[in-house]
Every structure is written in C-alpha cells, then in structure tokens.
Design brief:
Layout: H1 2-93
Length: 94
C-alpha cells in the first residue's frame, strides 16, 4: 500500500513539474510574441510618422515656393508700374 501511495505522490510531483515547465515555456513564448508584436507596431507607427513628416515638409516647401513666386511676380509688376510712371514723368517734363 505504501508503495502505491509513494507511486501516486511521485506521479503527482512529476505531473506538477511537467505542468510547471509547460507553463514557464508558454509564458516565455507569450513574452517573445508580445515583444515582436510591440516592435512591429512601433516600427509601423515610426514609419507612418516619418512619412507624415516628409509630406508636411514637402507641403511646406511647395507653399514657400508658391509664395516666393507670387512675391516675385508682384515685385516685378510693381517695378513695371514704377518704370511706366517714370517714363510718363520724363515725357511730361520734355
């Protein structure tokens, strides 16, 4: 009888040990998968942010170029107007 009880106790210890090892392995697998998922999500967010920054910079450069051209043409028009005024004044004074 004692041997049977001892056998059952050893079986329970072995079973508990097996389940404990399985649990530890599963936790380690879960941690690894969680790490990989978090890293992939973070890289995705980083790539999205870099793309957004590039878009914003491109929009800013395009807007600056547009304003520069607008200002250039405005100044050119002003110069033309001033030259016309000077020519009128020269023709009046002659």
């Amino acid at each position: 009888m004692y041997r049977l009880l001892l056998f059952l106790c050893k079986w329970e210890v072995n079973t508990i040990l097996e389940y404990s090892i399985i649990a530890v392995v599963m936790v380690l697998i879960g941690l690894g998968v969680g790490y990989l998922l978090r890293r992939n999500i973070a890289e995705g967010k980083l790539n999205k942010a870099e793309t957004e920054v590039a878009r914003i910079v491109a929009d800013g450069e395009r807007l600056a170029e547009s304003k520069k051209k607008k200002h250039y043409w405005k100044q050119k028009e002003e110069i033309h107007k001033l030259r016309a005024d000077v020519d009128k004044e020269k023709s009046r004074s002659t």
